[in-house]
Amino acid sequence: MPFGTLDRSPPPFFRQGPSALTKLLLCAALAVFLMVADARFKVAQPARAALALLLHPVQRLLLSPVDAWEQLGDYSRGMERAMAAEDLARKQLVQQAERLSRAQQLQAENQRLRELLKMREALTVKSLAAEVLYEAADPYSRRVIIDRGGHQGVRAGSPVINDAGVLGQVTRVYNFSAEVTLLTDKDAAIPVLNTRTQQRGVAYGGERSEGPMELRFMAANADIKSGDLLSTSGLDGVYPPGLPVAKVAQVERRGDTSFARVSLAPVAEPDAARHVLILEPLEVHEAARAEAAAAAASEAALFAERKAQVKAEAKAKKDAARESARDKGNEKGNDKGDTR
């Protein structure tokens, strides 16, 4: 074979580069590293916040036709509801007069009992109105996006309620929007109090196949039955006490376990919520009240110290005047003796 006809190109083994399996393992390792870094060190949080800020105008623009259509439908349906509500209001007016009289009597009695027992006044919490934009796209969680964010003063961990009861809690805050995790999410938990028996417990978000919510670790012989109303206990320092959370839907007691299986139905329907209130966390309010009490105590101490100082100065002046008058009396007595 002539020397010039030899193939001088490298074998195919050196032209192919890394194999497909090597590329797959490398990409998988990189993906795992990024997930761990984001979960532990929040390296992707600035990028996520910037992306949410850039997509916020686009989201609002895409939602504008839907909002316009809903407003048009709400107007037509609102006229019919207004006519029906007027008739119903006329029928309920007489009943409400009697209930109002009873409520005023109970309120006066409750106020007297509070003064006798020296109970503190009901806690007032700051609130911010917001509107639900859309539900998060994650099929394995129950989260919604609202149109208020850090620019309006929303904080992570703030409770979110509507006119029926507790909806959930703010878990992620952006500049002009925030993410709310609903109570029906599988990772959500809230301390509750049975309003009938005053028994405390913890309500968890249930799996989609088992129900929206459940009350775990409840003894099989516990005094709980269907229809019991559960409200917030206020022990977690986040939710104010007394807010409706859920009602007991079903209680299943089995002999093979020492715990009862309690299914709950949330009072506030998450799928129907549109307008919500964002409350200030209870721990923030308690911290502000503690600071105000400390400032008031400091001012009272300064006032008492100033009052004692003024009283001491007045006493010193009075003693000095009395001593001066005594010296003058002695001088006059000496002058009379010399004249004699």
Characterization of the model:
The strands form 2 sheets. This protein has a 6-stranded antiparallel beta barrel with strand order 1-2-5-4-3-12. Strands 6-7-8-11-10-9 form a 6-stranded antiparallel β-barrel. It is α+β, with helices and mostly antiparallel strands and 340 residues long. β10 (244-252) and β11 (259-266) form a beta hairpin. The protein has helices at residues 12-15, 20-41, 45-117, 282-339; strands spanning 127-135, 143-146, 159-161, 166-173, 178-182, 189-194, 200-205, 213-219, 229-232, 244-252, 259-266, 275-279.
Task: Kindly provide the radius of gyration, computed on alpha-carbon positions and rounded to a whole number of angstroms.
Answer: 36 Å
Largest sheet: 6 strands, antiparallel, barrel
CATH classification, class level of the largest domain:
Mainly Beta
Strand content: 15-25%
Number of strands: 12
Number of domains: 2
Q: Whole-number average pLDDT?
A: 80
InterPro entries: Cell/Rod_1, Cell/Rod_MreC_2, MreC, MreC_beta-barrel_core
Family: Belongs to the MreC family.
Organism: Paucibacter sediminis
GO biological process, one term: regulation of cell shape
